[in-house]
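ok trying this again, last paste got cut off
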Amino acid sequence: MANDIIKENVIIEKAIEEYYKEETKEKMIAVLESIRSLMNEDGQFILPVVVHGEGTEQFEIRSVNSNDGKQWCVAFTSEEEYKKGIGSDTISHFIDSALKFALESGVDGIVINPWGQSFLLSKELIEMIYKANEELMVSDDKVTKENLADGTALKQAIEVCQRNRTELNLMKLSVILRDSVLYIPCEDSTGTNPDILKNGAYYFLPVFTSEKETGEYGKRFSNVQISFSNAVKLAKNSKKKLSGMVINAFTDSFIVPKEMFDVIANMND
């Protein structure tokens, strides 16, 4: 039961410990953020359950009542926390599923580690976790031809990934990048002789989400509109050995390694 995924829950335990040292709004948010972060990484809780029937997968998460009469589903961050109380059948279950169950059932929330340094995760706090998660997820349902052309869809996706670099966000960003109109600083208007940026021993093809993003640097060149697939061709034909492509090099920059060029160019929706 004490697998590598469960061991990551030490992040939640430390956040709860810090919260009780100083019960501030900031410390509370840190606890919620630790849960949100592990939820997105397919983190799991240990849940005490009542199994209905031998050999069946149907189960009911055990709950406890607080002194004010409220009912809370029980979840543990580790086997050590579980062993502090009364024995029970347990399962290791995704944090996301546990939170959704609490929201959809008649309980008041989840109590984490009830026999140790416990934390009451009310439905209101669970909803705050999901709201924060929505704000930190790349939105692909608001992508239009217009914001792909003017660079705002890609720029917003990069901003989100800078704050929440999950595999799902990176995948959505890749699709947006594939379909975006980019600007590339070139020596002339033909778009065949792009400038190359050097960072230490590494070379990168600079591309931008808009002409405005090129700033003072872009004023020295012809900023040519180009598709991602054509940008890849320029990178591959460069006389210098490029390590990748850098988007918006002088603001919220984002590096696309050369190994991802063909993967992104050939992605399906």
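PB: full thing came through this time. The chain has a mean pLDDT of 91.
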